[in-house]
Design brief:
Its EC number is 5.4.99.18. Belongs to the AIR carboxylase family. Class I subfamily. Pfam families: AIRC. This protein is an alpha/beta fold. It folds into two domains: 132 residues, Rossmann fold (3-Layer(aba) Sandwich), CATH 3.40.50; 32 residues. Helix content is 51%, strand content 15%. It has six helices and five strands, in the order βαβαβαβαβαα. The longest helix has 30 residues. The chain is globular. The N and C termini lie far apart (63 Å). The structure holds 5-O-phosphono-beta-D-ribofuranose (RP5). 5-O-phosphono-beta-D-ribofuranose binds next to loops.
């Protein structure tokens, strides 16, 4: 029986520092993942072969990160009907604005759920994949809820600290 997992694809190893945030979030939720460097432009046949095989092996969500003329997420979305999350990487002279438009502007019928440019988007890609998987997994859904609550508590603690500081000036 195939085991459910998330595939995290990136166009180059230069995307890894950005995508580490995605891997960290998936680890936090104990979500199985595979990470792979594969390119829509430089290794199109290998990308196609990997996506087809990963889907057959139980991949539930693909997260695809690329910079510049970022077509990885769109190319993957054209191969699979699993949800595809696109992360525009903030590299090059246009600092990810090019990657954002290349990733988000998909033709109707082949969606890519595009997150923010750079590390915030990479982090949200992990959370969004967790929320997608949580639809059919009550234990994971509970963990996602708890994580959201603890992030709210962290903000409240920061506010309490600020109020304390202001009271002492
Ligand atoms: C994209 O081109 C990659 O995803 C990367 O963001 C960018 C630059 O790649 P390298 O030249 O660093 O390999 O395809």
């Amino acid at each position: 029986m195939s085991k459910p997992f998330v595939a995290v694809l990136m166009g180059s190893d230069s995307d890894l520092p950005t995508m580490q945030a995605t891997l960290d979030v998936l680890k936090t939720f104990d979500i199985q993942f595979e990470a792979k460097v594969t390119s829509a432009h430089r290794t199109p046949a290998a990308t196609h072969a990997y996506v087809t095989d990963a889907e057959a092996r139980g991949c539930k969500v693909f997260i695809c990160a690329a910079g510049l003329a970022a077509h990885l997420a769109g190319a993957v979305a054209g191969i699979t009907t699993r949800p595809v999350i696109g992360v525009p990487v903030d590299c090059g002279p246009l600092q990810g604005h090019d990657a954002l438009l290349s990733t988000v502007m998909m033709p109707g019928g082949v969606p890519v759920a595009t997150v923010a440019i750079g590390s915030a988007g990479a982090k949200n890609a992990g959370y969004l994949a967790a929320q997608m998987l949580a639809v059919g997994d009550d234990v994971l859904a509970q963990r996602v809820k708890e994580e959201r609550a603890s992030s709210a508590e962290a903000v409240q603690a920061k506010d309490a600290k600020l109020q304390e500081k202001l009271a002492n000036v």
